[in-house]
Amino acid sequence: MTLARRLSALMLYATSLLVLAACSDSSIWNNPHPENPDNEVILYSSFSERPKHLDPARSYSSDESMFIDQIYEPPLQYHYLKRPYELIPLTLTQMPSITYLDTDQQVLPEDTEDPAFSVYTFDIQPGILYQPHPAFARDDNNQPVYNFTSEEDTAAFSSLKDFTQTGTQELIADDYIYQINRLADPKRLAPLRGLLSQYIVGMSDATAAITQARKAFKEQDKPDNSWLDLRQFTMTGVKKINDHRFSITLKGKYPQFKYWLAFHFFAPVPWQVDRFYHQPGLPQKNITLDWHPVGTGAFMMTENNPNSEIILAKNPNYRGELYPSEGEPGDAEKGLLDDAGKTMPFIDKAIFRLEKEAIPVWTKFLQGYYDRSGISSDSFDQAVQVGGAGIALSDDMKAKGITLNKAVQPATYYLGFNMLDPVVGGYSESQQKLRQAIAIAYQEEEYIGIFLNGRGEPAMSPIPPGIFGYQSGPDGINKQVYDWGVDSSAVRKPIEVAKQLLAEAGYPDGRHAQTGEPLVLNLDTTGSGDQARMTWIQKQFKKLNLQLNIRSTDYNRFKDKMENGNAQMYFWGWLADYPDPENFLFLLYGPNAQIDSKSGVNSANYKNPEYDALFEEMQLMEDSPQRLAVIEKMKAILRQDTPWASGFHVHSYALSNAWVKNTKPHGISKLTFKYRRIDTELRAQKQQEWNQPVLWPLWTLLIIIVALAIPGYRGFKRRQTRTIEQVQNRAEN
Question: Which of 224, 356, 351 has its CA nearest to residue 280?
């Protein structure tokens, strides 16, 4: 291509961009979202990994709960604004009534301490409808439209969207009962089945009967995905009273049961939905409940493409719910009661885009294309500033109208010992002192400052702030590791104390007292780990002249080590299922040892009979000074035995753009989207303001092109003139 042609092409390109800018004053060139012709109110968010399970009987991940808790409705929910956490009805007309019975089924007084049975009775609101779904589609004869008997019949259906006919039906007691049967079904691998079987009368028997039925399926050579109608199995402790009333009978007294009733494990699943997804050929195409949830909640999943986006749209059959009219002190001043009494939800859709890296999420948040964002370490200094008053928004964030929500997560993360290990485990005085020495040397405060940007606090016990049993001040510190300082704060004991404990444990200066061999310890982790973090951890052990060998493996191998008791030290964490100390203290309850049960939560394999007896006493107590006294005894035992070297509680920081309303961190519940409100006009205004195209480089390029083009064009014309003259001269000659 000649120079003239190249310059001409560049000029055309630059001119076209400028013309485009002039003709599209209201458009934004870098908007990653498609146009919204229906002017729907959309909340934009992101996800980094596909949700593995969306079946409410199987899902046990906070990432999965972010989606399905907007769709499914268990009987209860948490009040969005009140703290301490308060349970309220969701699909019920009132809170469940509780009746205590003796062994002869006779009613006992309400203040009975040790009943034989507890009967929970549920009254469902009439008129609650499920989202539109093909499982409910019926023909003129009231028969299912989609009722296939072979894979040939379903060959034409490659996705759920191919089922064009949909229907709905009312929520009834049978749907909750069917889901409880699903929890009893071993095929569902419900994480809660072992626990619930200890309490729900007849659940173990139902599990045995279902197991036998599935065994018969195999003997009859039925396909593995064949539908087993769970309506044929009954539990003596689960009874239907009428279409809108049912009861659950528990063995003894289990106060924490009320919290599970707000968890999606107890969300209703109609038998029609279960049957639909077990039709021949559908599970092989991922047309399953694990991919396509069905509920009565405010939203339904209309798109599940884990390689691109997940979309929740407003359920057109949703009954509507009123925004709370009361909260805790300060909520009104923050605008959290501005929508009191208004019908929810306030948004039409929630669109989640796949983002595997934190930087693109942060960039798009600052551009106004994502409504909310966390704060990664890379963006911490840009987002907040640390001063005498603590952590606050940076001036840049304030200028953009961004707000900061801070909360202490009801979670505990810890460095644990395997109590079965012959070196760091055991219960002798010398083994206790070895662990106590490591606990003192491991500077959790420094870790929080370096790797969490100060967003956390050291754990003095398994119980995090906000949960009954948490103690602050001098009475709450772990006196094996901390002293109470003159500045009224916890101060870690000097390293000299740790060295003395190490010597008394039989390892003076980090060497075996008899052999002189250096003590080498192993820390098992997943993945390669962050090298800076791993180096820092090794330095903590070097304070005691202990050598730390970090053994990194993939998650499956790490899990095998933990299940078989082959790890020596490890990192783990626990996020509250419900706001009760039992949900944290059971992490060290002997019968929950992971070596005894692959699904056990006691990863340290800690077993102390005195602690276990106190746990069993505390477990069924209501919150009271008496319960607190028992918890303090349990803490004292843990601090002496030190099955965990160290721990911390995370402070969560979330940013919201100015147009996002009603954002209050909850900590327990993920059911938050129905409360969100988006000021779409303000968002469009800010997006336009923050994403103005920078056109001066194009103007500069155009001027340069013109400046280069003019001499080139003149030279081209001169050459053309000379050529014409030469041709004319040759013709004349």
Answer: 224
The vertex-215 CA angle with 182 and 282, nearest 5°, equals 60
Average confidence score pLDDT of the chain: 91
- Torsion, Cα of 540, 541, 545, 546 (10° steps): -170
Please state, as a whole number, how many other Cβ atoms lie within 10 Å of the Cβ of residue 565. Answer: 18
Query: What element of type H or E holds 126?
Result: none
d(CA 355, CA 373): 12
Cα angle value 126/130/132 (rounded, 5°): 145
DSSP 595: T
Chain segment 544-557, per-residue pLDDT in tens: 999 999 998 887 78
Q: Which tokens in the block code for residue 481?
A: 């590791």
**Residues making up the chain, counted from first to last:** 733
Token pair 């969701």 is at which residue?
Answer: 90
Sign of the C-alpha dihedral computed for residues 573, 575, 581 and 587 taken in this order: negative
pLDDT tens for residues 567-586? 999 999 999 999 999 999 99
Beta bridge partner(s), residue 457: 649
Residue 561: both structure tokens together? 């080590």
Report how far residue 15's alpha carbon sits from residue 41's, in angstroms, rounded to the nearest whole number: 36
What is 53-79 written as a DSSP string? ---TTT---HHHHHHHTTT---SEEE-
Q: Which residue matches tokens 């055309």?
A: 12
Question: Among 287, 333, 337, 292, which Cα is nearest to 311's?
Answer: 292
Structure token pair of residue 679: 């000021």
